[in-house]
């Protein structure tokens, strides 16, 4: 089965998400989302960037945060998820150790 890759230009991304180009530049600058090639003159975004932006918009709406606050919140949420995964792995190792 072939993988379908969706790519959006800046204009398409803005139309799809409702964000302005200046807001998009701020969001990219803060690292909330990343274009496929940050060094390119014309940014292209994949569907992962759209999903990440939608998550960021939910935080903005629900917590009334500005974009820098959202960048911090997303970083903390990612760290929490990483710690949860590590904790689950360690619990699994501990259960195997105790069972022996």
Order of SSEs: EHHEHH
Outline the low-pLDDT stretches: none
SS-based structural class? Answer: mainly alpha
What's the number of helices? 4
Major beta sheet summary? 2 strands, antiparallel
Strand order of the largest sheet: 1-2
The share of residues in extended strands comes to: 5-15%
Helix content: 55-70%
Radius of gyration: 18 Å
Estimate the global geometry from the Cα principal axes. elongated
Q: Compute the average pLDDT.
A: 92
**Total number of β-strand segments?**
2
First-to-last CA distance: 43 Å
Coiled coil: 73-100
Organism: Serratia silvae
Keywords: Coiled coil
Protein name: Chaperone modulator CbpM
What is the element layout, followed by pairings?
Blueprint: E1 7-9, H1 10-17, H2 21-29, E2 44-46, H3 47-63, H4 67-99
Highlighted features:
100 residues, mainly alpha, 4 helices
Description of the molecule:
By secondary structure, the chain is mainly alpha-helical. Helices cover 67% and strands 6% of the residues. The chain is built from four helices and two strands, in the order βααβαα. It has helices at 10-17, 21-29, 47-63, 67-99; strands at 7-9, 44-46. The termini are far apart. Residues 73-100 form a coiled coil. This is Chaperone modulator CbpM. Keywords: Coiled coil.
């Amino acid at each position: 089965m072939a993988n379908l890759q969706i790519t959006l230009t800046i204009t398409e991304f803005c139309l799809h998400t409702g964000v302005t180009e200046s807001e998009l530049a701020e969001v990219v600058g803060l690292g909330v989302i990343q274009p496929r090639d940050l060094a390119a003159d014309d940014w292209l975004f994949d569907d992962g960037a759209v999903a990440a932006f939608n998550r960021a918009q939910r935080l903005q709406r629900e917590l009334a945060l500005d974009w820098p606050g959202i960048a911090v919140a997303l970083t903390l949420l990612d760290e929490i998820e990483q710690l949860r995964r590590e904790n689950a792995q360690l619990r699994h190792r501990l259960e195997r150790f105790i069972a022996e």
